[in-house]
Specification:
This protein is of the alpha/beta class and 257 residues long. The protein is 45% helix and 15% strand. Strands 1-3-2-4-5-6-7 form a seven-stranded mixed sheet, with helices on both faces. Helix 9 (212-221) links the parallel strand 6 and strand 7 (226-230). Helix 2 packs across helix 3.
């Protein structure tokens, strides 16, 4: 499948180390708003919309994790960036894992949030893709956003939850379905020991989408990886626990254990 010219935004000083931020399935680059200002004080921050999300074009048909990784490499090449830190949540974390295993020369440090090397449940992902194609992503929005935040956080932030629901519903139906296929087919378990980038893995203790055992398996498979579990936090942990996630990113990307 051909590379998608993904929409992106760049913030922070020229010449600073580069951090690439990769969004969750159903979200856009705006999900990183809580982290950007602090990161941009010390890093050149590159955010992008995964294919079929936000302002990025969609591919027709199913995508693979290699397609998503290729999109990132093409973006780095366009921006003339040889090497970058990579931070990804959910499908963004899966993209980061594949990049770090396949193209180690391009990844400096890696942070993987609320993600998995092997989500499993391929039938459920096929069903979700079929629903997106037949009924639209709006039919999925309520259930998906219900897994993104703990009930207490959702109750306290109804406007944020409503905005996230609208973001999911605005995804390209075909593009979202294609990314579901990439998640459903994913199995990076035998590639984790190839990752040499210093890695931080972050869990949401209350994540019903990809529970903490998924992140524990990632951390166990990558030599020297650190594991941080946040509570309370569900799937979009960087939004629910913004101060803790931002501090962890700054420490890890700055080389502090």
């Amino acid at each position: 499948m051909s590379v998608i010219d993904v929409h992106h935004e760049v913030t922070g000083p020229e010449g600073a180390p580069v951090v690439v931020l990769s969004n969750s399935l159903g979200a856009t680059l705006e999900m990183w708003d809580p982290q950007v200002a602090a990161l941009a004080e010390r890093f050149r921050v590159v955010r992008y919309d995964t294919r079929g999300h936000g302002r990025s074009p969609a591919a027709q048909g199913d995508s693979t994790i290699d397609d998503l990784a290729d999109d990132v490499l093409a973006l780095l090449d366009r921006l003339r960036i040889g090497r970058a830190h990579v931070v990804g949540l959910s499908i963004g974390g899966m993209t980061g894992l594949r990049l770090a295993a396949r193209n180690p020369e391009r990844v400096d440090r890696l942070v993987v949030l609320c993600s998995s090397a092997h989500p499993g449940n391929p039938d459920a992902w096929r069903d979700r893709a079929a629903t997106a194609r037949s009924q639209g992503t709006g039919a999925l929005a309520e259930a998906v956003v219900g897994r993104w935040f703990t009930p207490a956080f959702a109750e306290a932030h109804p406007d944020l939850v409503a905005r996230m629901r609208e973001t999911i519903a605005a995804c390209d139906d075909e593009g979202y379905a294609g990314c579901c296929a990439a998640v459903g087919a994913l199995d990076l378990r035998d590639q984790l020991d190839a990752i040499t980038a210093p890695t931080l893995v972050i869990s949401g203790a209350d994540d019903p989408a990809l529970p903490p055992e998924h992140q524990g398996a990632i951390a166990a498979g990558i030599r020297g990886a650190a594991l941080l579990t946040l509570s309370p936090a569900a799937h979009i942990a960087n939004v629910e626990q913004p101060e803790h996630v931002t501090a962890a990113l700054l420490a890890h990307l700055g080389g502090i254990r």
